[in-house]
Write a structure and sequence with these properties.
Radius of gyration: 22 Å
Distance between the termini: 37 Å
Strand order of the largest sheet: 6-5-4-3-11-1-12-13-2-14
Strand content: 15-25%
Largest sheet: 10 strands, mixed
Length: 512
């Protein structure tokens, strides 16, 4: 019996008896906590954030019933480091191995690390992870046996239940992993995965574009072919276990709803990381044409549906009043990210970055400033917009404060208790936030200033055309009060501010 199965066999009472705060040890009922994490959803991609030509009624209702943040940040402008920070309370730049993970990467979060899931579990919660993982599986990269139980996964870092995609939709393996095993594994089609060399006899997207009947690749994404779509990496086998991209949202949402229903009578923590709106964007047929903006816009509509389904299930089960629900994104938006889906051509005036500068991957604001909404009836004020400066890295310590939980020495080292800001009681929030770009360059944002440290890197990526990365050899400084779009670099005019911001980064790097 692996760790996940053993944990699932525990009763709610047994789980509550673990160290930390349990339901029987507090005078108030513990709220359920649900985090819905979108993928590549931009600051301007939702109706409540000013999106044009795009209807997101469920998220907009969540904003009306709860609070919307104007200055919320992921810890990085790309996926793996952003997710690592949210689940560990540690800045990803403190480790060298938190870059964008390949599909057969080994576990980046190690079992000895205390995670956000561990925090909830030790407080008597049942914990679940559903959706995109992208934090590695197994002990070592490239050595997984996908045809047997994986020796290391979410169950080893605090999650009682998991139904996940190993990496991203555009990377192999293109199968779901449930509690450490390939869901619906097909013994007639054993799975092989490689990121080094192709498998003999398996057609590649670069050689057989005629087999790409669902989406054509634009840049890269031309190796294995699954469901008529080119991928990154090589794969053969899978058979009946292979996902169909148009059904991913349905599958993830169904498993998330089942987790909520099965745990309705005890406190639960659900980390629901959707595939939308990451490439390849191939939403279900019932969402096609709903946005008028092509597949990317339709994928946002599909994401909004997922949020609505979670809200509906909570309401049907009478859990709405005692559930803290957070909706946010792992990083900023990207348009052409490897497939010919006309995301740029069909914008029709829509600005995914919400008039901020930059995109996914970049050091500029739109790379890491993300939409963030929180609802907890009776605790979070309704219909409020908060300008508090908040970061995903602080969710860990903030939830620890909510649960009055004890953290092991060294856990969540960069997480600050900001519960009052997340609940709308503190209008200011952090003194500063730090964000990491794709080349590991760091920026510091205060309420007034945005500093970007000097770094080496290209001006743009060939595989993400049209994106201004901002990797420059000299420091950059922007006055966000007068220039929120970061159009005028004022570093030369304010050397004292530049020095002060550099000192912040120096102090942070020296702090271990």
């Amino acid at each position: 019996m692996n760790k996940s199965q053993l944990l699932l066999s525990l009763t709610g009472a047994a789980a509550a008896a673990s160290c930390g705060t349990g339901p029987e040890k507090t005078a108030r009922p513990l709220p359920n906590v649900v985090i819905i994490l979108a993928d590549d959803l931009g600051y301007g991609d939702l109706g409540c954030y000013g999106a044009l030509n795009l209807s997101t009624p469920h998220v907009d209702r969540l904003a009306a019933e709860g609070m919307r943040f104007g200055n919320a940040y992921a810890s990085a402008s790309v996926s793996t480091p952003s997710r690592y920070s949210l689940l560990t309370g540690q800045y990803p730049w403190r480790r060298e191995d938190t870059g964008v993970a390949v599909g057969d990467a080994g576990m980046i979060i190690r079992p000895e690390q205390y995670t956000l899931a561990d925090l909830f579990k030790n407080a008597g919660y049942t914990t679940g992870a559903v959706g995109k993982w992208h934090l590695g599986l197994g002990d070592k990269g490239g050595e997984q046996d996908w045809n047997a139980p994986l020796p290391m996964g979410p169950g080893d870092i605090g999650f009682d239940y998991s139904y996940i995609m190993a990496a991203t939709g555009d990377r192999v393996p293109c199968v779901f992993i449930e509690n450490g095993c390939v869901a619906g594994w097909d013994p007639s089609a054993p799975i092989e995965v490689s990121y080094r060399q192709p498998f003999e006899g398996e057609p590649l997207a670069k050689d057989h574009p005629e087999l790409l009947y669902n989406l054509q690749s634009s840049v890269g994404h031309n190796q294995a072919i699954v469901n008529g779509i080119g991928r990154i990496g090589y794969m053969r086998g899978g058979g009946k276990a292979l996902w169909k991209d148009e059904n991913i949202a349905d599958s993830l949402t169904t498993h998330a709803l089942d987790f909520i229903s099965e745990n309705r009578d005890r406190p639960f923590f659900l980390y629901l990381a959707t595939n939308d709106v990451h490439v390849p964007r191939f939403p279900h047929e019932r969402f096609r044409g709903k946005s008028g903006m092509g597949l990317r816009g339709d994928a946002i509509v599909e994401f909004d549906w997922t949020v609505g389904e979670v809200m509906r299930r909570l309401r049907e089960l009478g859990l709405e009043e005692n559930t803290l629900l957070i909706v946010t994104s792992d990083n900023g938006p990207v348009l052409d990210d490897g497939y010919q889906d006309q995301a740029r051509e069909l914008l029709n005036g829509h600005d995914p970055s919400g008039q901020l500068r930059g995109n996914k991957y970049t050091v500029y604001e739109a790379g890491a400033r993300v939409p963030a909404l929180v609802r907890w009836p009776g605790r979070v004020p309704a219909g409020v917009v908060s300008d508090a400066l908040v970061s995903h890295v602080d969710l860990f310590a903030s939830f620890a404060g909510l649960l009055e939980a004890r953290l092991p020495r060294g856990a969540a080292p960069d997480s600050q208790g900001a519960l009052e800001a997340w609940l709308g009681e503190d209008p200011v929030g952090r003194d500063y936030v730090i964000a990491q770009a794709n080349n590991r360059a760091l920026s510091v944002r205060t309420a007034h200033w945005k500093y970007i440290e000097p770094s080496n890197g290209p001006l743009s990526y060939s595989w993400a055309p049209g994106i201004e990365l901002g990797f420059l050899p000299e420091p950059q400084l922007f006055d966000l009060l007068s220039d929120p779009a970061e159009r005028s670099d004022v570093a030369q005019l304010h050397p004292d501010i530049v020095e002060r911001m550099q000192e912040i980064l120096t102090q942070e790097r020296e702090r271990r």
